[in-house]
Amino acid sequence: MNIDNEAIAEYLTIGYTLDWKTFEEGKKYKPRNMKFPKLKTRPDVTIADVKRELKNYFMKFAGKKVAVMLSGGKDSRLVVEMCNSLGLDATAITIGYRRDSRENIIAEKVSSALGIPHMFLELKPEIYSEQNLRQSILFCEADPTSLPFLTHYYYRDTLSNFDVVFEGHYLTTSLREDRFYQPKDNMKRLLRAITFDSIIKEAAREKVKQRLILQNENEMLNEMCLQEFKDALFKKFDITKNLFNLEWPNNDENVLNAIWSLPDKGTVKAILKKYDYGTRRLPCTRSPFPLYFPWIIHYGYKYLKNLTGGVRGGLISNADMGPWCGYEKIHMNIVKNLAGKLSLPDSLGLEFLDNSVVKRKIERISQRRDYASSIERLVRVKIWLEEAR
């Protein structure tokens, strides 16, 4: 197999490959289980239209056993509210390190208010072990960008008990988030939403940036969002179909086109409010105001407007490794140990890799959450290259 170093550089720089490239030279990923939706925005779409499309979509699963991956945020809350209001046989599932994490406490309150079952799946250290990584990488088509989420892989037997598993946060995408300041220029907005990892030498990072710009040249914001979703996440869920039946609302063209036809604003929050879903009054982990308020006071609004992608990424909570659970250091230590076992970075031999930056990140990995994510990508590349050869 000939290795595509350009694809590896893209993955290490931005976390995914562009245009469905794989690590095998000349080979692109071809979906097996899903048809990618087409974007056709419609004029005069309202919140009521979005709710109707969501209802039509969820009703396809009437009579089936449904699981909703419920975090402490609004997107998954809307999914579980829709399932409950339509009388679907729904169970909420929360993944985390501790039952007393804020994510799980809020998810339990939401489930209790709706009167639906709730399951807690513990994030055990072995989920991120070298052995589990190697086993899960066997599901990849041709690169670790299609590696299923390790939590999905580890709990595949549990999740396979359901006919459908919903991931709520795909109702929105990073480029359309209204909670952050965003420039009007679409290309600037795209570049601000992406972190260009410094473990790749500057010249190589610049090449990746130019390929990213070329791919999205003259595209509308919605088209950029769809392309990013396609490049960054679609392969993972297509592969995960081999493990269990996974669906999510953004996979439906009617839902996607209705939501993205609306102006760029808090669609999910608007639906919860307009239809008076009771759980909208419960706490939510995603409000950024408490995090930003001290910065605004100290530095002024200008500082807030110029937040970098790295800072933005470090503040966003998620069900797997969110700061709300208070146990992100477990993940940091696991990645640091893996880096030591695999003798990173010396054994990789990639000319575009900045070994001095890699070594510094490994040394300071316990201080920075984004360092752990950066080195974890290197770990996956090393394991994939070993398995592929």
Please give a structural write-up:
This protein is mostly helical. It has a single domain (5-287), classed as 3-Layer(aba) Sandwich (Rossmann fold), CATH 3.40.50. Helix content is 48%, strand content 6%. The protein is built from 18 helices and 4 strands. The protein has a 4-stranded parallel β-sheet with strand order 3-2-1-4, covered by helices on one side. The longest helix has 20 residues, at 221-240. The protein is globular, with a radius of gyration of 21 Å. It starts with a helix and ends with a helix. Residues 287-326 have low confidence and may be disordered.
Quick synopsis:
This protein has 18 helices and four strands.
Attribute tags:
389 residues; globular; 4-stranded parallel beta sheet; Rossmann fold; mainly alpha
Q: How far is the first residue's CA from the last residue's CA? A: 8 Å
The helicity comes to 40-55%
Strand order of the largest sheet: 3-2-1-4
Flag low-confidence runs. 287-326
In angstroms, what is the radius of gyration? 21 Å
The CATH class name reads Alpha Beta
Supply the number of helical segments: 18
Strand content: 5-15%
Largest sheet, in brief, is:
4 strands, parallel
Instruction: Give the topology string: H per helix, E per strand.
Output: HHEHEHEHHHEHHHHHHHHHHH
The structure class reads mainly alpha
- Number of domain units: 1
Number of strands: 4
What is the 3D shape?
A: globular
What is the arithmetic mean of pLDDT? 83
CATH topology group: Rossmann fold
Name given to the CATH architecture: 3-Layer(aba) Sandwich
List the helices and strands and how they pair.
Layout: H1 5-14, H2 47-58, E1 65-69, H3 74-85, E2 89-96, H4 102-114, E3 118-122, H5 130-137, H6 150-154, H7 156-159, E4 164-167, H8 186-192, H9 202-215, H10 221-240, H11 253-261, H12 267-274, H13 289-299, H14 301-305, H15 309-315, H16 328-341, H17 355-363, H18 369-388
Parallel strand pairs: 1-2, 1-4, 2-3
